[in-house]
Design goal:
Helix 3 packs across helix 12, helix 4 packs across helix 8 and helix 10 runs parallel beside helix 12. A hairpin with a 2-residue loop joins strand 16 and strand 17. It is built from 20 helices and 21 strands. It is globular. About 45% of the residues are buried. With about 550 residues, it is α+β, with helices and mostly antiparallel strands. Strands 3, 4, 5, 6, 7, 8 and 9 form a 7-stranded mixed β-sheet that branches. Adenosine monophosphate binds next to strand 2. The site of adenosine monophosphate has 12 residues, from strand 2.
Length: about 550
């Protein structure tokens, strides 16, 4: 891990991409075959490859406890070190640097084992003990990257695509072949080994190994879409969760957008397929629906995040999978075929009742897009997807072959009641704002947002909130309610996280309203009304249970 740390430091020290790439290539080339896959995965800032469903279950609080234990500093001293750095890894390195250093650090294999053990560990107490053991056995620079890997971000200016390029350079392979193999495997470690052994063409789309999802770019209106392409296939943008289905003819498994297996959460979908007889992989949206009617995301949300099924809930909130793409059929990958052809094959696939295919309507002009958009909203959807019929399926890429058009959303004027320090580039800055609406005499919090403000605004707000802080708490300060924000959002959910009982979905800051007095912010009544009416108004996005 010591060599990994010094390479990561070297990569972080340059902003030039080519230089980063050749530093990485030189390092990867020299690694033994046992260490290469581990290092390749860790360089992407993750403890496990993308296709893995495992997590280390280590959060900021646990890391703080472990560092406090190993170094003997107080939690307050930890916070004082953390706030200006804004990164748990940098904090660990700084605090651990102050003690006597072990002769060498855990090896890459040792860190890999630690990750395996953490993922398998059921209790926080045991995970804490594992962390303490590992941090004790690491020199400060290695501890920095160990912690960064556990938290899921190295922050050295390296994306997975750069690791792919570095592997191509290290072993003299075609960068496209490396990219293609990694796309199919979803595992940069195995890709690294194949690149080393010149066996990249062995990578195949495999059943029960989920692929990254193809993503869409947002457009503001039909004109923008038609500026990008001449003909589109228009589909309803359903409000559920992304779901990839793998079926080998007898067994069916479902995977989420994050490539986690979710079959057990939605047993009726797999059961409904039964022995489908055909082998296929398809991509779709899992929605809550009863008798063909969409129930909205708020209903679906009740079924998310559960380990196993709950029969009463399964009956109350039935789901359906609406499929929009076919990625493989009868052992043949279809990723490189144009969407138009994949759709023809999809339509030809006999699907059971719980699975249905989206309709894809060709549109060529503004009137066509507008009509399709209006019809999608009228059917209770979130918006419209526009897809280029000639496009191939590009896993993990957000390109212009898929566009999304969403309806304009409601906005609320809210007041900031707490501000937290940010991470990474926003470290030391109060850039994460918890905000509230008015509920009679009291303020009731409804959400937290950090996106949508400029660097200048953050600098101004940091200064302002430092002055108006009434109380420090771990990650930030409670402030005198004085700054009004206009926030946009996608819906309203019931939530125990805020004292209003509601949370805005995907809130983002539209404007800092210095012109607006706190007395004029929106009320909890308005939030409640939005929640009540969104079932019809926002296309089934929620509504009362
Ligand atoms: P967003 O999450 O706003 O970036 O929108 C993209 C998401 O819309 C995808 O990841 C899908 O989960 C979802 N979606 C809903 N309907 C469709 C559709 N017909 N085609 C593709 N994605 C869809």
């Amino acid at each position: 891990m010591d060599a990994f740390a010094s390479v990561a430091d070297e990569v972080a020290a340059t902003t030039r991409k080519l230089e980063k790439r050749s530093i990485l290539a030189a390092y990867l080339r020299e690694l033994a075959p046992e260490s290469l896959p581990i290092a390749a995965v860790f360089l992407t800032g993750r403890p496990f490859p993308l296709s893995s469903e495992r997590t280390v279950n280590v959060g900021g609080a646990l890391l703080r406890e472990a560092v406090v234990e190993v170094t003997g500093v107080s939690p307050k001293e930890y916070d004082a070190a953390y706030i200006p750095l804004g990164d748990a890894g940098d904090t660990a390195a700084q605090l651990l640097g102050g003690r006597e250093q072990p002769a060498r650090s855990l090896t890459l294999e040792g860190v890999r084992r630690l990750c395996d053990e953490l993922a398998a560990c059921p209790t926080a107490t045991e995970r804490r003990a594992l962390l303490i053991g590992a941090l004790t056995a690491c020199r400060a620079p290695a501890a920095r990257y160990l912690v960064k890997i556990l938290t899921g971000a190295l922050r050295i200016g390296v994306q997975e695509s750069l690791v792919e390029e570095a592997l191509a350079e290290a072993f003299g392979r075609d960068p496209d072949a490396v990219r293609q193999a990694n796309m199919l495997l979803g595992d940069i470690g195995r890709t690294a080994l194949l690149a080393r052994e010149d066996r990249l063409t062995d990578a195949r789309l495999a059943l029960f190994r989920p692929l990254k999802c193809m993503l869409a770019t947002a457009v503001d209106g039909p004109e923008e879409a038609l500026g990008i392409g001449a003909e589109w296939l228009a589909e309803d943008k359903l409000d559920g969760i992304r779901c990839q289905l793998h079926c080998d003819g007898a067994e069916t498994r479902l995977y989420s957008r994050t490539l986690d297996e979710i079959t057990r959460q939605f047993p009726e979908v797999a059961a409904g397929l039964g022995g489908a007889g055909r082998e296929f992989v398809c991509d779709g949206e899992l929605i809550a629906a009863m008798d063909g009617e969409q129930l909205g995301f708020a209903q679906l949300a009740r079924r998310l995040g559960r380990k196993g099924p709950d029969e009463a809930l399964t009956r109350a909130v039935p789901v359906a999978l609406v499929v929009f793409d076919l990625l493989a059929l009868d052992g043949r990958p279809l990723l490189a075929e144009p969407l138009g052809e994949r759709r023809v094959r999809l339509q030809g696939l006999p699907l059971p009742p719980l699975l249905r295919a989206t309709e894809a309507l060709p549109v060529r002009d503004v009137a066509g897009v507008e009509a399709a958009f209006g019809a999608a909203l009228a059917r209770g959807n979130e918006g419209l997807m526009l897809k280029d019929p000639r496009s191939t399926y590009q896993p993990g890429r957000r390109g212009r072959a898929w566009l999304k058009l969403k309806r304009p959303l409601a906005t609320l004027d809210v007041v900031v009641v707490a501000a937290e320090f940010g991470h990474g580039r926003r470290r030391g800055l109060l850039s994460d704002y918890t905000f509230a609406v008015r509920d009679g005499e009291r303020l009731a919090t409804v959400g937290k947002a950090y996106s949508g403000v400029t660097a200048r605004e953050i600098a101004f707000l940091t200064e302002h909130f430092r002055r108006s802080a009434v109380e420090d708490f771990g990650p930030g300060v409670l402030v005198v309610p004085s700054i009004v924000l206009e926030v946009a959002f996608n819906g309203v959910q019931r939530s125990g996280r805020h004292n209003s009982g509601f949370a805005l979905r995907f809130p983002r800051i539209k404007r800092v309203r210095l012109d607006k007095p706190v007395a004029e912010i929106d009320t909890l009544d308005r939030v409640r009304r939005l929640w009540e009416t969104q079932g019809t108004r926002e296309g089934g996005a929620g509504g009362p249970a």
